[in-house]
Structure formats: structure tokens, C-alpha cells
Amino acid sequence: MSSSKLSAAAFLLLLSPIGAFGYTKNYTGDGAPIAPLSPPYFPSPVTSGAGDWADAYVKARNFVDQLTLLEKVNLTTGTGWGQDHCVGNVGTIPRLNFPSLCLQDSPLGVRMGTYASAFSSGMNVAATWDRGLMYKRGYDMGAEFKGKGANIALGPVAGPLGRHSEGGRNWEGFSVDPWLTGVGMWETVKGMQDAGVIATAKHFIGNEQEHFRQSGESNSFGTHEPVLQAISSNIDDRTMHEMYLWPFADAVRAGVGAIMCSYQQINNSYGCQNSHLLNGLLKDELKFEGFVMSDWGAHHSGVDSGLAGLDMSMPGDYTFGSGTSWWGGNLTTAVLNGSFPEWRLDDMATRIMAAYFKVGQDPETYPETNFDSWTTSDYGYLHNQVQLGWGLVNKHVNVMGDHHIGIREVGAKSTVLLKNVDGVLPLGGQRQIGIFGSDAGESPLGPNGCSDRSCNKGTLAMGWGSGTANFPYLITPLEAIKARAIQDGTVVQSVLDDYAYAQINSTALQASVCLAFVNSDAGEGYVSVDGNEGDRNNLTLWNNGETLIANVAANCNNTVVIIHAAGTVLVESFVDHPNVTAIIWAGLPGQESGNALVDVLYGAVNPSGKLPFTMAKTREDYGTDILYEPNGLIPQENFTEGLFLDYRHFDKASIEPRYEFGFGLSYTTFAYSNLTIKKVSNSTYTPMTGFTAGIPESNKTLGSPSDYTFPEGLVKASKFIYPYLDNATAIPSDSTYEAPEGAYDTSPQPIPAAGGAPGGNPSLYDVIYEVSATISNTGSRGGEEVAQLYISTGLEDDPVNVLRGFEKVSIPVGQSTTVTMHLNNRDLARWDTVKGDWVVLDIERTVKVGSSSRKLPLSATLA
Ligand code: NOJ
Fold first, then answer.
1. Per-residue pLDDT at 863
2. 281, 307, 514, 628: least CB-packed within 10 angstroms?
3. Hey, whose CA ends up nearest to atom 10 of ligand 1?
4. Are both 566 and 655 inside the same structural domain?
5. Same domain for 678 and 563?
6. Where is the Fibronectin type III-like domain (predicted)?
7. From the CB of 284, is ligand 1 less than 6 Å away?
8. What are the residue ranges in the chain where pLDDT is below 70?
């Protein structure tokens, strides 16, 4: 092993003097403690076309071979915030007719687009526990990005995972459980990339809270002490592998083309220059063959970040609109003066182009970018940041197709029925429906009335921030219910003012059923909404939802509460109220919100959603919480709970949740029987051995600096990031830069034991057991059920149960179905921090199958 590569054992040693995140010395000068350090990992692994990247790699190599130094630099560096039409664009290669690559948010649709769909949130599609719907949503979104001429879609999200229930962006991702999130990543990446767009798994990694994710941003709020640098998520090696890295491994194995590194630090090294994470875990261990882009402004160094594994700087300038870049001309300079090896630049460009070819993009056939992020008008600036040039920027290509069908289906099938006394739902022919709360209706400002949805008015169907899309329309619950109720001759009365208690009470008195709509919003940390700086300040309802419910329930003995929320909320104030007969969690369902809800309320769809997180009785029950006040100039967040998040924590600490992870009722009932386990393979986990091929030195002659200055006659756009040198004399003849040890080493490197193929050691994914069970529909309606498989090792340092499988099936009344789930080596493995590898212990495990993390009627021993 090269001296510059630390084994995980050494990594552990590095951590160990400070114990489990104890501290040894004061480095901030103000009494704040020192935290763990991320070990160096060099050299940066080069892509080699592993797995199903072979063809794309050959095409990419051929393409990159034709490029000049300037052209390669142009591929790796954004042109600057607001300088082109997408939230990020790289430079063009006019000589080869290669257009600028367009990078566009978001994980739920084309952000800032017109005539594009607003899909359900990632959290909602996770709540369907339906692989087919996850794939379809990904495919439909991918088709929309392609139709708009965006090459790279900035989603899906596996970071945040959801360590904090209050976390502002949890809803952009899938679930706090890494296994479920892994499935969400896999299906979404497959769907998006099959449709032809490059998917981006983000934010790598440990990006669990909005507060202090960037120092400048959080200082701008002025509501807490200023910080010097971004927060550090301090994560130990086992937790990293078994929790946070897990879903990224699934994304890499699914062939994801891009990964976005995160704003904050991990073990006190910034996400976009953390060589242990980018070179080590991502490119060596997981053998990621695509490219790493920085989050917007998460790029903090020139040569160092590139050597540490960053491949693309976004949006190119180091603060938005500054016109100055760590890369661009500076990267050209670094290659010319020898501080940045050309092989590394070749690898960066090859990775970008391999992702491009892997999803089948081609400059001849891929649609040109036909939308603009900065205006919805037809005409606008060509360089909006500097208000330069003018032309047709929005062609308003309608890419929505029939995607509303899938959006409605995800909306309905992600709806979680939490309480349903005596079958009050589905609604029969009602005499009079009372509808209450602003969350039932349209925002007076319109569905897109606040930029990036940064206000909570009207019905809530997505959170706020860059993870949004413009609603092409938003079907409100009120309009959908009215349209349906007319079929039964039902009277519908509504009071949307959350505080009009006199009207609320008198209307509630008249109704045969009262629907109380409440919500709780969250979003990204660059905006503060109602005092919530991205992360929620609490888990209570917005707009005094609890009081609204109390008023309705006091006057109506058939009150149904409908919750639109960015995650969990506390329901204790009303859950046991005798007049609250039903509770529905509808999450953030997207544009078809009202229709999806009506499908469930009236029984056209039998609810089958299951919670992708635990709903606790108190906020404290979760055991983890946002760091709202900095605990030093460089805030330190120690992930000391390790593997024990959400249900794993509740199980360990014997805390009774209100509604457990995986819980959700149906209008029918299911019975579980016949658990059988079959061993289908004798494959054992086999550590990888051997060495990489080494890195061929570039044999190109670079010429002289004067070949790299701005071409004569070029009309420069102000603040635009170019690859050129300002002047030919700016380059010192010898580099004075001291690179990290091993960074220039081109010799063959050992392949990590846990590595070897995209997603990690291939033997991890060998299926060992087939687990099947019979599920019978014992009720009076057809319905869908999600069978869940948990494993228990009984070891003290393992969670009581961990999710390791699920299967959603549709079962007619009175019939039974067999579900079959598979367990592979990874499902049985644990990360050994001393070996720096996975191990499958030879122990007895219990396999449990049931309808939620706490209702597991079937169990058997796995010998
Ligand atoms: C910052 C966000 O963290 C990221 O998710 C997004 O893709 C970029 N901004 C671009 O808008």
C-alpha cells in the first residue's frame, strides 16, 4: 500500500486519540474543541471504463484525445453564475461543434422551467415503497430534462439522509433508512438515465442540516454568532459505510453519471476537497466512473481540490457573480507550471465525457437548451448576470406529456393513512363536507407566487429552495373535492382562513364530515421562511394548525385531519381526540395534490403508503437535533448516535413511537404467514486484491504560455469564466507548490478490499438467501401491501432490526400472494473499521417479516 493511502485502520488510529469524537486540543483559539481529521488519500484514481462503462469510456477517451488543454479546462469549469441559461453551464468546444453542457435542478422536475411538470417529492415516492413508481417518476423526469435540452439533472438526493427530523431538505431525498434510500437512488438513477439525461447523486456527503452548511450564508442571517468556516459533520468509518455512503453505493452501482459534493465539511475537510471521500471512498472503493461536480460555491481551492478528486467546478466562479474562479484560466496555469498533472485533467474531462456518452447523448441529436433559468419571458439576456446580449431564451417547449398520470398515482400511493376509526374513510355519500384551513386552497399569490416556493401560503405540495420546480398548475384539495362531491349531491362549505374561528366553528357544526388541512414546511438554507432558516425550528404545525384542528374537532364529531408536510410532525395534541376519526399524512405530493388525495378519500385508491420515517410523540424522542447555535468558530456536529437513527434509535432506547417507521393503514386488512428461507448460493464475501494498471503519463507537448492567452478579437463577456490566461508571463517557470504526498504518483495502486467494481466489491451483491412469505387480503376491498423484511443480529452494537428488503404487492379480496425478497452479502455484512473492509460474521441472525418496523409477525432463524 502506498504510504499516501491510509488504511481504514490507520484512519481509525487517527481518530482514536480523540476517541469517539472527544477532543484533544483547542484549534479555534476560543476554547472550541478540535474534532477528527479526515486522512489524506492520493493519488486520485483514474477512470478505466469498469463495469458497463466500457463503451462510454472508449468514446470519451477518443473525444478527449482530440482536445487541447484549453478545451479540456473548458469542460471542467462553469462559465459563472447567471452567465448562461441553466443554473450551471460549462464552456463550449466550438471547434468540434460541442455545445455547453447544461446543468439544471431539481430532484423533482426542471427547476425554473415553463411547461414542465412539478413531480412528487422524493420523500413521497419513498413512501410508496414501490420500485416501479420510483423508476417511472425518474424516467418521466429524465424525459422532461432532455426535452428542455438540459444535459445533467441535479438529482436524486441521498444527502441529507434525514438525521434530523427538522432538516430542511429531507423531503428532497427519500428516507432516513439507507436501504430504502438506496432503492430510491437506484430506481431513480436508472429511470432518469434510461431517458437520456445524466443524473447527479447529491450531496456527497453528511449534508444533514442547513444551518452553517456555508459560512457566508449563515452569517448573513445574523440570528446567531458568526462562524469562520462551514460546519463539520464528524462521522466515523462504520457509520459512514453503513449509513451515509450506502445509498450512494447504490447510485454508483446503478451507473450514475455525476455526483455533487456537498457544502459542509466532513471530519474537518471540505466536501469538495476531501481526498479521503472523493479519491478514497468514491473513486477507489466504490469505483465511481463518472464525474464529481462541486455544489454551487462549495469549491474552495484550485490545485488541491482537483488532486483530491473534484472534476467540475460549479457554477465556475467562486462566489456567485464574482467573475473569478479557482479553475478556468487558473487551472490552465496550474497545468502549464506543473503543479497540476495533465493526466488528472485528462481524467476529469474523460469522466465528464464518459457520463455524457453512457446515457447516449450526442451533440447531433440531443436537444439544444431551449429554456432560461432567469426569466419566464420569451426574450431575455444571453448573459443575465451582467445583462449582456438579448435574444429568444425561452421556447416554452411543452415536455409534460402524460406525466400527470404518474404524478397523481405517486401522490395517491404515497398517502399514508395513520388513523381510521370504524372505517370512516373512504367517504361514502356525504350530506355536507366542511373544508378548513389555508392548506386546502390556492395561494392568493398563485402556486409560484414566491420564488423557489419560499413562502407557505395555500396548499403545500413542495418545500422551498433549489429542490423545486414551477407548478404548471396545482390541483388544490378544495377544487378536487368539490369536483368529486358533486357526483353525490354533497354540499361543500369551506373556510380557508386559518384564524376565522367563528366561521370555522359554525361551518363545522353543519357538516357530516370535516376535513381539517394543516401543514409544515421546510427548505434550503439560503432563504429563511417565517424564521426557519431552511431547517424547521420545530415539528409543530404552521399557521396554528393545532388550534384549527381543536376548533374543528370541538364542533364536528367526524373530523379528518390531512397533513401536508416536509417530514414528520407532532400529532399528540389531536391524535387521541375522540372527534378526530381519521388522520392522513400526504407529504409533498406535487402538482396533482388534490386529485391524489380525492383518490384516497373516496377509495378509488386504497391507501398503501408507509411512513419513510418514524413519527414520534416528542421531538426529543428522536435523540438527534439540529445544531442551531454554533459551538465554535467552525461548528462541530458529532454523529455520535452512529447507526442508531430513527427506528433504530427508538428500538434501542425502548421509546414508543406514535407511528413507527414503515407504518401505514389500508381500507382492507392483511395477514402474514408461511415464512420460508432458501439458501440460493454459497458465495462468500471475498476481499478484492491486486493493483490498478497505473496512470500513463501524457505525452503531449504543451507549448508555451503565449499559446494560451485570450485570442485576439475575442469579445469578452464581463465576469464570464474563460480557460485563457490573462497574460503569458503570469506563470512561474518552476512550481513552488507543494502537493500532498502521493498526489503525483502514477504507479499502480492497490485495489481496496471493498472495491473492484462500480458500487464496491462485486461479491457484496451476490444473492445468498431467498426469503418468501404469504400475504392474504383478509378484508373487504382489494388493496396493496408492502411486506417489509428486517434483520436482527442480536449483537449489542447492531440495531435491533434493520430494513433489508421490501416488496409491494396488489392482492384482491380473499386472495393470497407470495412475496419473495433477496438477501445479498452486503445485507448481511458489517463494516470492520480495523480491516477497512466488509465482513460477514458467522453468526445466527433472525429474519423478520411484517407490515412495519414494529409489526413483524413472522420470524425465522438464518443459520
Ligand atoms: C445549491 C444546492 O445545494 C444544490 O442542491 C443545487 O443543485 C445547487 N445550489 C444549484 O442550484
1. 82
2. 628
3. 296
4. yes
5. no
6. 785-853
7. no
8. 1-35, 730, 732-735
- Does residue 248 have its Cβ closer than 6 Å to ligand 1? no
Q: Could you give the number of structural domains in the chain? A: 2
3-state secondary structure of 158: coil
Strands 559-565 and 513-520 turn out to be: parallel
CA 87 to ligand 1 centroid distance, Å: 9
Give the residue carrying C-alpha cell 414566491. 450
Question: Of 225, 204, 209, which is closest to residue 270 (Cα–Cα)?
Answer: 204
CATH code of the domain in which 513 resides: 3.40.50.1700
The answer to whether residues 537 and 574 belong to one domain is yes
Say if residues 261 and 292 touch (Cβ distance below 8 Å). yes
Q: Is residue 104 within 6 Å of ligand 1 at its C-beta?
A: no
581 and 676, same domain (yes or no): no
Instruction: Indicate the Cα dihedral angle 829, 833, 837, 841, nearest 10°.
Output: -30
Q: How far apart are CA 292 and CA 312, in angstroms?
A: 6
Catalytic residue list contains 837: no
To test the ligand 1 pocket, which listed residue (466, 524, 527, 535) has its Cβ within 8 A of the most ligand atoms? 466
Distance between CA 577 and CA 562 in Å, rounded? 15
**What is the maximal distance between C-alpha atoms in the chain?**
86
* 411, 124 Cβ separation under 8 angstroms: yes
| CB distance 619 to 570 below 8 Å | yes
374 neighbors 114 (Cβ within 8 angstroms):
no
Give the count of beta carbons closer than 10 Å to the beta carbon of residue 604: 12
CATH of the domain at 827: 2.60.40.10
612 and 678 share one domain: no
Residues 678 and 600 in one domain: no
For residue 679, being part of any structural domain is answered with yes
The domain in which residue 446 lies consists of 407-659
pLDDT value for 23? 29
612-646 pLDDT, tens digit each = 999 999 999 999 999 999 999 999 999 999 999 99
> What does the block give as the cell for 700?
503531449
Q: Does 748 fall in a domain? A: no
Q: What separation in Å is there between the alpha carbon of 759 and the centre of ligand 1? A: 24
What is the residue type of 441? G
Please tell me the distance from the alpha carbon of residue 436 to that of residue 496, in angstroms, as a whole number: 5
* 202 CA closest ligand 1 atom index: 5
**Residues 123, 782: Cα–Cα separation, whole Å:** 25
SS3 355: helix
The answer, yes or no, to whether any atom of ligand 1 lies below 6 A from the CB of 108, is no
Does one domain contain both 509 and 418? yes
pLDDT of residue 719: 97
What percent of the residues of the chain are helix, what percent strand, and what percent coil, each to the nearest 5?
25, 20, 55
pLDDT at 698: 73
Q: Does 327 fall in a domain?
A: no
Q: In three state form, how does the secondary structure of 226-251 look?
A: CCCCCCEEECCHHHHHHHHCHHHHHH
Is 626 inside a domain boundary? Answer: yes
Could you tell me if 499 and 537 lie in one domain? yes
Look at residue 438 in the predicted model and tell me its pLDDT: 98
User: How far is it, in rounded angstroms, from Cα 118 to Cα 410?
Assistant: 12
Residue 80 CA to residue 74 CA, distance in Å, equals: 12
Tell me, what DSSP letter sits at residue 781? S
Catalytic hit among 236, 295, 535, 651: 295
